[in-house]
Write a structure and sequence with these properties.
homohexamer; alpha/beta; eight-stranded mixed beta sheet; three-stranded parallel beta sheet; 8 helices; about 30% helix
Chain lengths: ~260, ~260, ~260, ~260, ~260, ~260
């Protein structure tokens, strides 16, 4: 691919060092953690709103995932710039959406900052299909997808704020790739971990990924015990959150091989 | 449970006598009425908007229900007050959400006035699970639930305006329980009947519960006949609403044992 | 039906000639085209936003359709005008909603301009059922339906912005029928083609219906080939959109009887 | 003026008799009443929201007025219809905005239903200037004006929800004139009284105009006495609203020639 | 005044001890501090959003103030409860708005939680006039005032989100007084300091009032020097915020009697 | 100033050549044109919405201006990044807001893409004061300013969507400078002409600046004649827009030295 046009331009931006790349192993661990546990651990570390607001999955049973953020930024379209001619047949600086899709790597999650504007599509099913072929773990926009029903049938999780067939060219211009963006109210830096389960999309700062995975695995295991205790008829006091007595009982339960707790008659 | 902290404070409020408690028998009758019939009868009595706007069920097939409102009121969180320390392991005045859940009785519906703010969760699955154990008939918030997918799998109907994992502590403070509130645009007084079917949440003033049940049962029965007539090919004039001739035909149909009406070929 | 009251009033309006009636044959062709292809062809002809924003189907698997727009316009209700007395048992100028439903013809789509106000229902299941009996292909409102779950079980596609049992009389007055309206952000002239698939409602100006059908059928066929190529592992460059080489390969594929393309291992 | 094109079209509408024309004398009386008094009297008669929400005057000191509603209805623009060619140099059915302005009579108030869309102007200063020349008492839109600063310098009151220079043709089409409309949340029927003071625009049903004028004049006079009593140091109990004793004192004060009340030291 | 009805009811609420009453002396000091300085000091202590969003002053030149919060809480109106009969001529539990106004003390600020609903007035000019007589320092609502122009002419600062003449009874019910509320997005506890200048309303937790006054007075003084330096032509680096060199120069300037700095030619 | 940190990073962006710099002479001509004329000429060239929506001037009588866009882009803040430490005393990559202000040149207009979020300030009066010292012609944000009253007293035009004292650090992070942005719904490329009059902010693509200036000067002159004719009593037909006869009369009027037209008695 000719990437001549990918030369950086002369704008002024922050020069901060890239965070370390989150490993596939840590991503796999994070993918099996619930969003409620993630946000509890992030809250403890001072992050008040790491969850995207107003996006929902197109898939009937969305697959849990965790991947590295690859960002795409939209600005409003302008009639003389955003014409059909920008949908080029070869790599081109005027067609950054196609460039972005073909630049995705295994383990990436495409995050589109669509300025929460659902009047025109962020993209449609063919590009999403191509992203899945390239190994993307998910795609998230705070705007809308075209072909929502078709995308919802794919295995790749796709999250959005709406569905519309209106051409992206009507209202959106792809301004650049791999810059820090906002998406559905949350800051996303390239390389951050984007996490999805059946409920939400959560953003985990890259430098915290491993620490969060450690803390969440422990919490998730304990909360499964707590949930079972509540289903067995216990009141919440001392159980949720667990006091020392409950924690001891939890350790015994683990030691005993995690026997099924009785359900209240 | 130590309820010392439940002593009333010194604020100024209305002193109006409590309405009579709506009986379980009336609740059961109301649970089987459709929301469309309820609102028609309430409109006749001058109530223009008894239906919550913008809430939806988490359950794929929400169970119809009617219960007595138990209210919980949120105000915005404040950083020095709404910390992890408020999630206590024992009953405490700083943890009114837990107190409220454990104060629910058989037949109650928890109604949360979350100021229509979906940026943070109203509560999560463990508390909802506990509420179901205590006999709550449903839970409604004009905010969001954490663990929406998990709650949607439970039998207890849960209605909300969104799903988010963001900690309640980030944006919500539980200010008090069992006061009159607004929820999704409708006034809710403790003890009012909260009604849900597959479509909506409707609020019925407690003192009207029995009168409404009477009127609605009659209307629902007639409308099933009307719907069948329309499906059989009749135009709406004189059928919907029913004129005297149609009402007579309805009575004959009832007398004849409600035979199936033909469907237009 | 006595239509004396349907005499036109004295207001000032445009006198432009009606567009030609779109034939059933063209409607049938349009019904099988995807909304993404429609909007691409409309964009080429200068139409930037032909898709309704914020409406969704009540049906779990909405049926694709195309029909002729029959419009109904709402204004805010007024307490002395919009009373129960307007729900008449005979055709009447005060009950235009019933008049409208009974005036629908085979192939029509009822489009309700509800000013995007979901506080009260646009209509309920009995009228929708009657519309289906009269041959309506679909019903669309930018407001809410009453009895959404019941309507969602019907075969007729029903699209809306919400569900509420609140009586139409509380907030809506039916002002007139068959005038140009706005619905969910798009202009709809009586006789325009209203198109729905699983994703969207799109409005096609009547005079363009046949031209659009021709152009879209060709594009849809090519895009199925493109989608298959992408699923087979091709990058998007030169494939989507198709350059001359790809178009030639497409023609060969068609000539070869459209054999299945391999999926990447 | 050639009004051939003003012939009514064939759409279906209500045939209800026009209300009697509100006289200039009644308009003049209403113009000097405060909006707070108007809404109190309308509330007593069952009208809950007669005040437009979200509109504000462009004039620094808006002139109080009352006039007869002349309505103009917008729908969304369509690219092939709403072109520069519709701004004709002669009366034409494609240029209803100009037709409407030239159809205004002494005592009218132009009310524009702009669907609360402020993205494009409802009209600009030249048309407003022409309306003033024709004797219009005011102009109200729930959209935006172009040339807001210039209009704000004129004597004619102009109320709107915003200011924008964007051409009306970009987003608005004038669909018809003198039909019932909604404006800023309130139903407006041609001929209704549109009232403005420094605070609000209020809509008074035409048939109630005289009755309301009578009731309001009495209330306004009493409330000026009440306000003076409060400024003199009285508590509100029994004064506002006035009990029998206060009413007697009011009558004595009137009989005494309305002497100035002392202001609390 | 008979306050029998002011007896506390039986609802469940937090029992936390009241904060100490903020003295008039501290209020006076806070009243002369700018909101920008207040929020800087609050941010340093962890308070991210202490400023009400979306409210504006009715007064052309709003007077700076600081006072103790006296809260009034609204819920949605209900047709059978919120009738003209609640506007009583004597103190009554059904007329808490009048009770609240007459309960205000010197130095209070009335804060109305109107659920950000501007469709109906929070109150009108006569009650505001009475509040001023009782020594209230300001009144704030996140809803609307009736008689906005008249209130804007008074000396008492009045802040709101809109102006409407629509009767409070149409949409609002006064539920109680002196409870914690949310107003324009910020938590307000009775007794908190409500601060207003020409720009904003800021809420200062009562227990921090004195500490904040101390810190802000120092910062305000330094920033006046910084502003003068910038107007004299200095670049911001090292001046704003001030480094040690600049702070030393500031102290010299203070010692020199605060001479006027030159303005760049 | 040490600009080492201003080295471009490695993100992918468009490489399109910069448009020619708009000269000061053209800016001066554009500054005296009305926004209504600008948008008419832009509409003729296909630009449908070049006007920012929802921003207003802080100045009581905003000065007309035209300048070259210098852009600043915000994303949501993150608690660990956006701390007080980023308000540095020396040029730094973590303090791009200060860097941007000090990088402004004579004739620039700072345009801040604040994602239309008014919960926190875009900046305050000291930075605006410094911008004025550096020769900036105006500053525009689709968010809010701190110190709005103070900024409104300055000569430099300042436009925004609100006023709040809440610290920028609470919700905004400055992500970069001089990239294409969206502001109040309009695309802004660095170097575009930003135009303001008493009514609006309009964006003119840089390559069209001179052509637009030419066309607008002619239109503005004609429209002043038209406005005078309307004030003299002419109907709009043939005058506005002007037909050939009117244009001839306009030329005669110009030739006659633009005598004052009579005002209708």
């Amino acid at each position: 691919m000719n990437q001549d046009f990918l030369a950086p331009d002369s704008h002024i931006t922050t020069g901060k060092p890239k965070p370390p790349r989150v490993s596939d192993a840590v991503l796999d661990r994070l993918a099996s953690i619930s969003s409620g546990t993630l946000t509890s651990q992030l809250f403890k570390r001072g992050y008040r709103q790491p969850v995207m607001v107003g996006v929902r999955p197109l898939n009937a049973r969305p697959r849990p995932f965790a991947g590295r953020a690859f960002t795409m930024r939209f600005i409003p379209a302008r009639e003389d710039i955003d014409t059909g001619a920008t949908v080029t047949m070869e790599p081109s600086p005027v067609n950054l959406q196609w460039v972005g899709v073909e630049a995705l790597s295994e383990g990436d999650v495409l995050v589109i900052d669509s300025r929460s504007d659902v009047r025109a599509a962020s993209m449609g099913d063919i590009l999403v299909s191509r992203m899945a072929m390239r190994g993307a773990r998910a795609v998230v926009t705070d705007g809308a997808f075209r072909d929502g029903a078709e995308i919802g049938e794919m295995e790749i999780p796709a999250w959005c704020a709406g569905i519309t067939a209106t051409s992206r060219l009507s209202f959106h211009h792809v301004a650049d790739l791999q810059v820090p963006v906002g998406c559905a109210g949350v800051a996303v830096y390239p390389g951050d971990v984007i996490h999805g389960d059946a409920n939400n999309i959560t953003v985990i700062p890259a430098h915290l990924a491993e620490e969060i995975a450690d803390a969440c695995e422990a919490q998730d295991d304990l909360e499964q015990y707590i949930a079972a205790r509540v289903r067995a008829g216990d009141a919440v006091w001392g159980i949720f959150p667990a006091n020392e007595k409950t924690k001891a009982e939890y350790r015994q339960w683990v030691a005993a091989g995690r026997p099924e707790l009785p359900t209240e008659p």
